[in-house]
Here is the input.
Amino acid sequence: MEYRKLGRTGYMVSEIGMGCEGFAEKSYDEVKALVDVMEQEGVNCIDLYSPDPQMRTNLGRALSGRRDKFVLQAHLCTVWKDGQYKRTREPAEVKSGFEDQLARLLTDHVEIGMVHYVDSVEDWEQVAQGPVMAYAQELKQAGKIGCIGLSSHNPLAAQAAVDSGLIDVLMFS
Here is the structure.
């Protein structure tokens, strides 16, 4: 496996990463088998987009005893509510959603705290100047996230985030 330095993070990540949306509705044994293959083949970067709580619980169990071999990219601003995914900027939901992720993943930190789905300049400005970014920076200072990232589909919002210097990683589709 080839590895590259990820943005300004300093983390060396595999050129192939694993997205977790495909883990939804999989049993613990299926998730563990996928993590076993990832470890065997040197895939070390896991994007935790899927807000499905059971998937996170299964993944946390599968990472037990080898958590340090993986770079976890967890999404801030996602919650599981009424049986489905919800994007949120509500501070209480952002905080409870992130704390739930850590608990289910059986860890006290993730390498990347990814501010989820910022798809307009106006949304970026609200995130950057509001409680979401303040919370992300608080998490970084406390060591609960190693760096701050952002996911976007909008070139103008992504560029504004990069230009701000507030993020270390950009995930752009």
